[in-house]
Amino acid sequence: MSEKKTIYVLGHRNPDTDSICSAIAYAELKNRSNDGNRYLAARAGQISPETDYVLRRFGMRQPVYLSNIGTRVRDMEIRKIPGVSHSLSLKKAWNMMADLNAVTLPIVNRDNGLSGLITINDIATSYMEEQDSTILSKARTPYKNILETLEGEMVVGDPEAIFTKGNVLIAAANPDVMENYIMEHDMVIMGNRYESQLSAIESGAGCIVVCLGAEVSRSIRKLAEEHGCSIIVTPLDTYTVARQINQSMPVRAFMRQHDLITFQPSDYTDSIKEIMQKTRIRDFPVLERGKYYVGMISRRNFLGIRKRAVILVDHNERSQAVDNIEDAEILEIIDHHRIGSLETMSPVYFRNEPVGCTATIIYKIYREKNVDIPPAVAGLLCSAILSDTLLFRSPTCTQIDKQAAQDLASIAGIDCQTYGVEMFTAGSNLKEKTPEEIFYQDYKKFEFGDVTFGVGQISSMSGDELRALEPKLRPYLERSCKEHNLSMLFFMLTNIIEESTTLMYYGDEAAALIEEAFQLTPENGSVQLTGVVSRKKQLIPAFMEAINKESAI
């Protein structure tokens, strides 16, 4: 059975009530289709007090926070190359690499924490360039590694011991000559000559390696035990033993331990790609919690990366979408705004209708599919419609929105007008919030040609509350405009009861744009727009027309 695919249902940055509630309701609908996938409502920013009130009112949790939809390391094919002990012999490491078709092995401790790495180049370098006859002891080579490498048997001594002192020598001379160069603790490779074995033991050798499987006499064994000398018998010839014995050294002697480049499963691939391209290293360990080994990745793993799947609601512009939306697999778009700048790699289900709220479209889909709407979901959808249409006062509101809201209110057991006032009152308690929190509560960025500007909006049923906000927000407009490198910045203080907006602005061309769009002369950083309550249907279209006129001149 194939693994369930997680598909995120996601609204725009700085989400409003429609963005959040539509995502939750559509994820609920998709999960009830039982198509084998798992649909998860998500949010691309912090929720507003109004939305928080709505979720608590109908007993719903906040959607999962997803600030970046880009692929992560966990979305790559992580190669499960097994971690090995630091005592593993170079020969066995080499053979493992050949069997696994790998060029790097991770060295791990007993807790599966990464201790280091060894590459096929490290092993080749150790074998070809190392001429030190004491290297075997310096590497603290376990005798069991030597036995494994030489296919040998220890007839005297402890196979679990470690060779820590002495040179490695070949007994090619007469016994009387050998006495002059065999030192205490040395390992001596030799044949079956009794005199040579006796001389090596009496000279203080720590170990003798007898080649060609020669029988070791009882007297030599007894003498070796008395002198603390180990004896290894191997079926290999002297030349082969001399050539291969260094391959018994443990990988810890040559592994790389410092300045290792590692990644975590949660790392975004766009951030690691440049790091990987700047180094000649081929394989990189993936560590859970920055410590525990998971597997290996390389540059070639970018080819088969699994993009994260997403359904977008309440927006279709790249500037309003979650970070790295271009790296995601967009499956559907459900929206009620103008068609924007998003592009997809393949055809998608795109539903865009000229209604006042995305939640109205979600409601219609429920009805079209003959799926019952749970009371809590109905409450969310109704709240979104009331919020986006400003209790049916916005020019974006259609008869379809009103009918949908009334039907949903009946299912949820609420009255549109009474509940709407409660919702807006809960959402407009802004006295304790910072200018930044207020500004980004409902903020969107727009791009028209070379002009990039931002528009925030706060709606309230209290004119006094809105008037108190203006001086609080004034200094933040200038700072935010410069920080985000925008041409202009606007903020709408919308009075729901009076159906009007105080439009604050900042930017060299902002006043001229307002004058061209509304035939009004702004003064002291703001202008009063009577009858204007909708950013989508009144403010942005007027700005677009004015910008297009300016471009045509």
Describe the structure.
Helices cover 36% and strands 20% of the residues. By secondary structure, the chain is of the alpha/beta class. It folds into 3 domains: 6-71 and 307-427, Alpha-Beta Complex (inorganic pyrophosphatase (n-terminal core)); 76-139 and 249-301, CBS-domain; 435-552, DHHA2 domain (Diaminopimelate Epimerase, Chain A, domain 1, Roll). The two termini are 62 Å apart. Strand 9, helix 7 (175-178) and strand 10 (187-190) form a beta-alpha-beta unit. The mean pLDDT is 92. It contains 19 helices and 22 strands. Helix 13 (375-388) packs antiparallel against helix 14 (399-412) and helix 18 (510-518) crosses helix 19 (535-552).
Could you name the CATH topology of the largest domain? inorganic pyrophosphatase (n-terminal core)
- How much β-strand is present in the residues? 15-25%
Rounded average pLDDT: 92
The CATH architecture of the largest domain is Alpha-Beta Complex
CATH class of the largest domain: Alpha Beta
How many strands, what sense, and barrel or not for the largest sheet?
Answer: 6 strands, parallel
Structural class: alpha/beta
CATH superfamily of the largest domain: inorganic pyrophosphatase (n-terminal core)
How many separate domains make up the residues? 3
User: So how many helices?
Assistant: 19
Number of strands: 22
User: How large is the radius of gyration?
Assistant: 37 Å
Residue windows where pLDDT falls under 50 for at least 5 positions: none
Strand order of the largest sheet: 3-2-1-15-16-17
Report the span from N to C terminus: 62 Å
The global form is elongated
Q: Approximately how much helix is present in the residues? A: 25-40%
